[in-house]
Amino acid sequence: MSAAGVNVKCPYCGAEYSVPRSVTYATCPYCGTTFKLNNPGEKVDHYLFKVFIDDQRAFSLVKSFSSQQVGAEKSVVSEASFTSSKLFYIPIYLYEVKVKALCRDGSSDFHGGESYNQYVVAAVDELPITLPRGYGFPARGREYFKPSISRNYVYLQPLKDPTAVFEELKRGDINEALSEAREACPSSNIELVDESRYVGLAHYPFWEIEYSYRNEVFKAVVDASDGTIVYLEYPLSMKNSFKALVGVFTGAITASLIGAMIATQNSTALIGGIASFITFTPALYISLSAFLKRKGRYTYNPKEEAEFLPTR
Ligand SMILES: [Zn+2]
Q1: In angstroms, what is the span from residue 144 Cα to ligand 1's centroid?
Q2: Which of 40, 90, 133, 301 fits as disulfide partner to 11, beta carbons 3.0 to 4.6 Å?
């Protein structure tokens, strides 16, 4: 047994291998069987989301998306060059929550409230790539797990306890169903029927793409199943960032001059001029550093996307 890990024996093929001590489930790198570390006999459904987007396709999505960002360098489409790609498999838990609250009134029982939701939760807290919080993993293209995945790509073992996560998730739905029923039948007994289930563990693919543009390195993270860009660094246009810089400078100088002009009539107003200049400095600092680095950043926002793109 190594200091970092614990040796396990696959209950299906008998192969022995080492996993980090903190994992909840272990996946055999030889036959692909997934089992619970503290209960190897318990069957676990393990799914895999298919890669529909290869790294070159992901790179071209990154280029065109970069060029559409405000202030971005348009020539990124023709001048950026692909540096490297890495495929990450992020472990997720899939749940289906289905709760009903029945009104029991002695002779006549009736349906008082219910809640139905499907949930996907990342099975690790720390992700090696930048993923937005609350990212909705699309449920298309699910298949059973293949063992070659864990050998050839960056494959993360799930760490969180799926049962604890489940209890936490269900709470909101249970409260919703119960309060609906309390309104529907304030004087009856309410019985909760919980038909929720833990669907299983899945691994979801993301590309980390690295590209270069005029000797600078940029990174992006792309959903390898549906092509959504979840994180992006892109080159800012020299012209646009220079314009912004000049604008802020001009504003700051004008404000100081007005302050100074007033100061000739009123000596205390000189302080006003300095104060005006200072109030501009955060904006000045931001445009100056954007100008020097010339690197813009974009992170997928699940809330915004849900409003604008309801049919992802
Ligand atoms: Zn095995």
Answers
A1: 15
A2: 40
pLDDT at residue 63 in the model: 97
Q: Which residues pair with 49 in a beta bridge?
A: 142
Distance CA 116, CA 134 (A): 18
Compute, in angstroms, the gap from residue 138 CA to the centroid of ligand 1: 29
Measure 11 CA to ligand 1 centroid, in angstroms.
Answer: 7
Cα→Cα distances 107→102, 110, 212, Å: 13, 10, 73
How many angstroms does the Cα of residue 47 sit away from the middle of ligand 1? Answer: 16
Kind plus residue range of the DSSP H or E element containing 164:
helix 162-184
- The model's confidence at residue 268, banded by pLDDT at 50, 70 and 90, is low
Specify whether the CB–CB gap between 142 and 52 falls below 8 A. no
Distance 13 CA to ligand 1 centre (A): 4
Higher local confidence (pLDDT), 83 or 93: 83
Question: What does the pLDDT look like over 156-172, one tens digit per residue?
Answer: 888 888 888 899 999 99
Q: Which two tokens stand for residue 1?
A: 């047994």
Helices 238-265 and 269-293: crossing angle, nearest 10°?
170
Cα-to-centroid distance, 30 and ligand 1 (Å): 5
Q: How far is CA 196 from each of CA 99, 171, 174, rounded to the nearest angstrom?
A: 7, 12, 11
Evaluate whether 210 touches 218 at the Cβ level (below 8 Å).
yes
Q: Ligand 1 centre and the CA of 5: distance in Å? A: 18
- The tokens for 68 are 């559409």
The better pLDDT of the pair 175, 118 is held by 175
Max CA pair span of the chain: 91
CA dihedral 75, 234, 284, 242 (to 10 degrees): -10
**What is the C-alpha to C-alpha distance for residues 118 and 111, in angstroms, rounded to an integer?**
21
Q: Residue 270: pLDDT above 60?
A: no
